[in-house]
Amino acid sequence: MTGPQTDLIRQFLNLAPTQADIDKLVEWRKSRKTTVTSVLADWHAAKLAELHGKETATLRKTHQWLEKFAKSFGDRSAAEIPEKEIRLYIENASKSPKSRIDFRTRIVSLWRFARIHEHFDSQEAAKLPSYKAEKKGHISVWSPDEMKMLLAAVDKEFLPWLCFAGFSGLRSEEISPSASTGKPPLRWEWVKRDQRVIDIPASLSKVKKRRLVPITDTLAAWLDFIDPPKEGVVCPRLPSKYATKTLGESVGGWRKNDLRHSYGTYRAAVLKNLPQLALEMGNSVEKIEDHYREAVSEEMANSYWNLRP
Fold first, then answer.
1. Half-sphere exposure of 266 (CA within 13 A, CB side)
2. What's this model's pTM, rounded to 2 decimal places?
3. pLDDT 10s digits, 101-119
4. Which residue ranges make up each domain of the chain?
5. Which of 83, 98, 108, 112 has its CA 20 to 30 A from that of 168?
């Protein structure tokens, strides 16, 4: 309870209220219902204002989910919804721990917005359990021989995508994002070969922060081979599922995230600096440690980084 709230209570008690006065106050408070739907409308408007009126796919998805959540509680006062009911809604909505984590985050964020903007004051959302994601097994990576075959088999149009993903760890959505995200595609102007860095702007980065990714000697050699223009879009489109399936036939099947995982794994083995690798990949140090610490030998990593045109 805050100081001002305590002062108000003291002032109220100094008035020597009767039970009837207190009952009237309770009834008055009940009549001032702030529903989840009304708070959600203000939250959505505020988020749109932050994005200058342009709704992203992520915001749209979050808003749609919260609308269903708000509808389930109808015209009830949001401040009076107990943690148990919110928890049951989350756990009935999905059995997936990852989804439950996402749902909890959305609700806690909405409740925090309501408190900051004085719509209502409730700590019930903060009481929700911190759902734990399932522990995944070891990640897979392309072996040096597999990567060599991919480089030989890939269509010329998609060679830059393969090299940036495999030798700099860029996410596919950071190379050529879907048009629905509103993000700009990677441009050759941001590939500063003289400075040996790729300057990923905040508008493209998944974590919405500018990131400088080093151009490794291996990537530099492939860029010399590609001989790109000084400006323009690096990869106008990503390979289709059919194209990656066809590409994967040369190595026993396509594995979706192995290009980025390969960079992280082989880079960790030679860099031996996980915080630095976390900065390069735009991940937390904890995630880097979980995925890439001691995953391959330095000898195997050297074989990977010696893949040149």
1. 28
2. 0.57
3. 889 999 999 999 999 998 8
4. 31-127, 144-305
5. 98
